[in-house]
Amino acid sequence: MRPAxxxxxxxxxxxxxxxxxxxxxxxxxxxxxxxxxxxxxxxxLSELGVTCLWLMPFQPTRDLDDGYDITDFTGVDPRxxxxxxxxxxxxxxxxxxxxxxxDLVVNHTSDRHPWFRSARRSRSSRHRNYYVWRDRPPRTxxxxxxxxxxxxxxxxxxxxxxxxxxSFYRHQPxxxxxxxxxxxxIARVVGFWTExxxxxxxxxAVPFLISPPGAADDTDPHAFLRELHRFVGRRRGGAALxxxxxxxxxxxxxxxxxxxxxxxxxxxxxxxxxxFLSLVRGEAAPLARVLGGRPVIDQRQGWAMFLxxxxxxxxxxxxxKERAQVFDALAPDERQRVYGRGIVRRLAPMLxxxxxxxxxxxxxxxxxxxxxxxxxGEEIGMGEIPATPDRAAIRTPMQWHGGPSGGFSxxxxxxxxxxxGDGYAxxxxxxxxxxxxxxxxxxxxxxxxxxxxxAPEIAWGELSLPETGDDAVxxxxxxxxxxxxxxxxNLVEDARTVEIEVPLGIDDDATVTDLLSAEPVQTRDGRVVxxxxxxxxxxxxxxxxxxxxx
Length: 550
What we know:
15 helices; 22 strands; alpha/beta; 550 residues; 8-stranded parallel barrel
């Protein structure tokens, strides 16, 4: 598979960067990040190597759930800017070759949304069926998504004496997606943003979308996703749908659709959790087992690879024993854990600030087949605020330099959200310092992105797991035609040496190079000999004679 054959499938090889406009850059000194501030930082993202910008919700909101409680689906929160500024952001990003996708949060609305305010006035309201109502909660009700914060998914509305469904928080009533009028409203919202130039959408909590309460028993649960996919394709050819489907691989397949008819990309939750289990145990087996069982999917679709995102690091797919191991190693303080399943920490402090382990984790992220996703600030090793409750601990302002508020805002510190470091970005954990240090984490991430983008076989190639003969060393190869990419990772602190048989073999005519250093690649009897320091890694590429350059 050559890049020229797949240029229209941009999402397969995208480098995705997730950010919240509110916490990225404040341009006017009011203590709140804004669209103008993000526009000023697009060149930074371009130089980093980002090809796709994922925007968390920026619409008007009560801001009780970090913007996911939306009161107007086709507006811009006035604290952040306006629609004119958003169109300018799209123009600047597109001019730098960066596509822009945005969160599409249509599971629910805010309880202050005009639809819900109308719906709760009367049982005869024209918006009543936009939501799910019952005279009394069902005896067998679904579990709450946020145990400990909500004890039920049904909330009583005194005015109309009925209960409404809220799969998430009580201030986020679920939309009734079985109602045709609601689907028409969603189509209008999608059409609005694609007309402005948005390149796709990240769908929040997709499993909640496909089985809406109130739907007939014989309703096809995936019909809504197929309908949405067709509509987006008609309105903006080449747009992509990225879905949050936190299920095992075999259950995720249905969300791609038969013949690429639903989601273009899905987050790979199973592999992410296996990465952390392997890192904690110092064993390749957990990750190798998950990768070996990952299903082959349509070439028009792909996996979005990530280590951290804006939510907790979920460990739902691990066994109770495995989850306890990861908790003990990475979140020893109970306050760092939420909902019995997740960790609210950033990657760098989770790995105890050990630069070897941090770099190895990111080497895995960018070498595993898929489209890598970075959460803002991960490229500089940002930390979290331990005393901050729940997921807010990791949703702190971007750290641009070592001055007050990390350069995020010129407002008085009392008006700016706290950042790790007592109001100042910690030494070297900021963009300014790391841009000037060739050995910084930021410089390393830029190198990984550049090498990932130069080796499309990482995303397109056929995955295999060559034997290493060492339980602590993971090797994986991606083969596309006669080009082979090989990544080798030592998961323990002791040095290791392994010999690996590369797909297609090593002969005198092949060119074998190290993508991350000038260190020569040793071969012996047609095998690659890899020497690894503690927590070390190598990226090796085998090229045929025809691919040699003068």
